[in-house]
Amino acid sequence: MPKYLLIESRDPFESRDTEFLERTATALKQDGHAVTVFLVQNGVLAVRKNARDSCLARLASAGVALLADDFSLHERGIQPAELQPGIQRSDIEALVDALVEEKTKAIWH
Amino acid sequence: MTERTLTLALMDPPYESANSTTALRIISAALQKGIHVNVFAYEGAVCLPLKEQMPHANPVKGTTVEQEEHPTTRAFITSLLQIGDGSPLLNWVSCGLCVDERGAGNVVDGVKRGSPADFFKMAQESTNTLVIPTK
To answer: Which residues 80-99 of A are in CB contact (within 8 Å) with B?
Structure first.
């Protein structure tokens, strides 16, 4: 069964098309796939604890692994203490490792 | 250990989107891990390795070219091609039609001309493929 790596680069507060990612990740997880969402660039803007109506809490509750690119967090002044529970700081090396794992399907959004 | 290859399709032109920066970071990290990398540059991304790109001063801040150290994508690609000059190998192919449309043929050494058929072959022969489209 393939694993899914969804890479979210878009700001959820800028466009509602990021709902695509939540729907896709949730559906894949419900079908029994391992799903990881890697947040990069403006995709990390949803990670703050105080963010309203963030889909990330729902994804974490659904069992989706959530990783946030450290470089993108640093660029945007988001401190580790500000992260919502269930989101792990990560880096581009971890993304590369995930990309070359067997039976992994990667989708950039 | 089995050799691994990652293929990326890039479409954004330089200096427009953080996608280009992230793509270059992915390529660099993969090469440092000994992973071969194929890049298929499509549409505006064929301008990433243009030789004529020049760093510039910053008149707002009053800094010179030297002080500003403005990074160019052609310099990054040149460095990556030097790192990926053997094993691991960086194979950078630009879409020929996209190059012709833009008159963007004067590129740094090591960049090849190809077609979407090359991308299809790269994807077939790779461990994984990541398409980074324009927004």
So the answer is: 92-93, 95-97, 99
Prediction ipTM score: 0.95
Place of tokens 């729902």: A58
Q: Report the residue from B26, B132, B135 with minimal CB separation from A96.
A: B26
Could you tell me which residues are beta bridge partners of residue B107?
B50
Among A93, A98, A85, which residue's Cα sits nearest to residue A37?
A: A98
Give residues 22 to 51 of A whose Cβ lies within 8 Å of B.
40-42
Span between the terminal Cα atoms of chain B, in Å: 37
Per-residue pLDDT of B82-119, as tens digits, reads 999 999 999 999 999 999 999 999 999 999 999 999 99
Chain A nearest C-alpha distance from B14 (Å) = 16
Q: Which of A33, A39, A42, A40 lies closest to A105 in space, CA to CA?
A: A33
- Which strand (E) or helix (H) includes residue B79? helix B73-83
d(CA A72, CA A48): 13
Which of the 8 DSSP states describes residue B115? -
